[in-house]
Specification:
alpha/beta; 6 helices; 20% strand; L-threonylcarbamoyladenylate synthase; transferase; DHBP_synth_RibB-like_a/b_dom; EC 2.7.7.87; Sua5-like_dom
């Protein structure tokens, strides 16, 4: 049964954020809000969490997981970014974008695309997510909370708890955060390739 954390959207309660972070450190799988939609998240090195996300979403091993980072400095520890890509990514963060880039050795092999050795990264523009990342001190291993056969992610914390109570350890609710997932841009080949059009404006990548 998932714990339910009611978090203020503009002024997240430090004690509650600490409780969520502690549960993640202990290998909890949580549903949490972002600036695009709800996501599933777990500790960076959690094989169990990663497999549980795969199971919930019915994903294969070619799926790009995302490292949700607090800031650009943290993002730079986990992916290689050349000068041209740096400018494009920097100009779009924080925001509703996920970038696929070559992984550094800091990224566990199990999280990398099996052939491309890439990983997704993003910096969310969301007060609650940022507070949680600051408390954790490392990225969250994440994937959009989009269930198999459904076109849109769930947007309400209470609904997520009701439907996924048996497969999650915690739900963080700070109100509605929208239905559009991030825009995904693949820079692994050097040029911007739009993989998914979502909440982020694609104009600068076309």
């Amino acid at each position: 049964m998932a714990k339910y954390f009611d978090v203020h959207p503009d002024n997240p309660q430090p004690r509650t954020i600490l409780q969520v972070a502690e549960s993640i450190r202990q290998d909890a799988l949580v549903a949490y809000p972002t600036d695009s939609c709800y996501a599933l998240g777990c500790r960076l090195g959690s094989r169990d969490g990663m497999e549980r996300i795969r199971s919930i979403r019915q994903l294969d091993d070619r799926h790009h997981f995302t490292l949700v980072c607090q800031d650009f400095a943290q993002l730079g520890q986990f992916v290689r970014v050349d000068k041209d890509v740096f400018r494009a990514v920097k100009a779009s963060t924080p925001g509703s974008y996920t970038f696929i880039l070559p992984a550094t050795k800091e990224v566990p092999r199990m999280l990398q695309h099996p052939k491309k050795k890439t990983v997704g990264v993003r910096i969310p523009d969301h007060v609650v997510t940022q507070a949680l990342l600051a408390e954790l001190g490392e990225p969250l291993l994440s994937s959009t909370l989009l269930l198999p056969g459904e076109d849109e992610p769930m947007t309400q914390g209470w609904e997520i708890k009701d439907r996924l109570d048996h497969v999650l350890d915690a739900v963080v609710d700070s109100g509605d955060c929208g239905t559009e997932p991030t825009t995904v841009i693949d820079f692994s080949g050097g040029e911007a390739e739009i993989v998914r059009r979502g909440a982020g404006d694609t104009t600068r990548f076309e």
